[in-house]
Amino acid sequence: MSRRDLTWIPRLLGAATAAYGAAITAKPELFLRPTRLVGDGGEPTSEQRTFTMAVGGRDLVSGLAMLTAPAGTPLRTAIAVRVGADVADLAVLGSRLPDRDAREKATMVAAGWGALCALSLLAADRPGRRLFRR
Question: Taking the model in full, what pTM does it have?
Fold first, then answer.
């Protein structure tokens, strides 16, 4: 019995990741304000904009890879890269943001998104193929 093609799950996560990456690249405040790297009334510095655009570019590219990679090993690899980026965010943002509340929120978002993407590995193969064999 063949299973349905569930690759739409990691592809949807990839599209959302790419959209977020594009959004924060275009408007860094979308990243900088929730992380409290810039206060509500403050303006981002050139360095903060550069940092956010690098994170946004990384998210855009990793999301597009999840969206377009062929099912199987290429898609699993794209997902693994995305999960690795989330682990890095978890470690860096969770320990280095200047505000405790922002650190906690960033930790929750990075851990949650990373876990969701990691779970999508189960849907990364072509129909009829199992990630884990018995």
Answer: 0.89
